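Section 5.1 Outputs to date
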Amino acid sequence: MNPRPATPRLRRLLPLAVAAALGIGVGAGTYALTSNGSQAPTTTKVVVPAQPASSTSTVDTLTQLYKQDAPGVVDITVESTSTGGSSNGFPFGAPQGPQKTEAEGSGFVIDTKGNILTAEHVVENASSVTVMFQDGSTAKATVVGTDKSTDTAVIHVDVSSSKLHPLALGDSSTVQPGQSVVAIGSPFGLPETMTAGIVSASSRTITAPNRFSITGAIQTDAAINHGNSGGPLIDTATNTVIGINDQIESDTNDNSGVGFAVPINSAKSVAETLIAGGTVKHAYVGVRIKDVTNGAQITTIVKGSPAAKAGLKVGDVVTGFDGTTIKSADDLTAAVFNSKSGETVSVTVKRHGATKTLHVTLGVQPTSPSS
């Protein structure tokens, strides 16, 4: 997604792990561990009017949902070690040893075998992962596998099945604006916190940790902050997980009512592959594109890429991809994202006023767009 603010100002799309302790993890947001000032907070008496009986049903429903789902949400603490640097411009300053980093995020149980879904950027470069359950007990976890392209990871704990309360996974393809949702996680290190809101928009495009695009992301105004990363976004009507909370867009690094979740359909597919011991592969064309009227125009073609081999050219406007009409750059990104590497697809383009159809054999996405 490319935000277009009405006035020039800094806007940030931020991953939502929390870094604390002795360092800051790459890509992780931070929060203060001390209060702002030493004075005791003032207290203002607030009179809350009685609510009519008809307005209590939603509260009761959310309370019941929390009782059912919170035991399946876990707090994740990650320790990692970065290479040593130097202080005060070494060699004039003193050399420093390896720097320890502790980050905190969220996750949720998906089966009774001990598998837990979370965000890839939460467990990136982890040397130690610890999971805390709702009852306060902890367990060491191992990383089963990760996928930067969907910012998805699976970790595993060996605990009694009585501690495992799997959450039901829903269908993100049917998500529509206006649906009521809740997010459960550990914002600012406060485990088992639930916030409520709605789906603000669907089919957004956000940037993955490896700088490729994640399509189908769900935008929500449920309060999401640092530490919510990896936690579930739950549809209240079906009590199913429709997304993994992942990023916020904010001028202040804190919740602004614009949060994004990775669609659960993408994460579910990745999780199944990782748990089975497979390697996740994503389709790759090898072009950079921009929006134009009724299409996506190619601005760059990677040398030796599937696009180059198929004869696509800079300036071509893609209007169709394997039978799907393409009206924007996001449309084309989503079409490729939902395809499989190795497939041969037809691509319809407009070139110098003429319409051409070429056939592209999709490759495997490299580690980064510049590869």
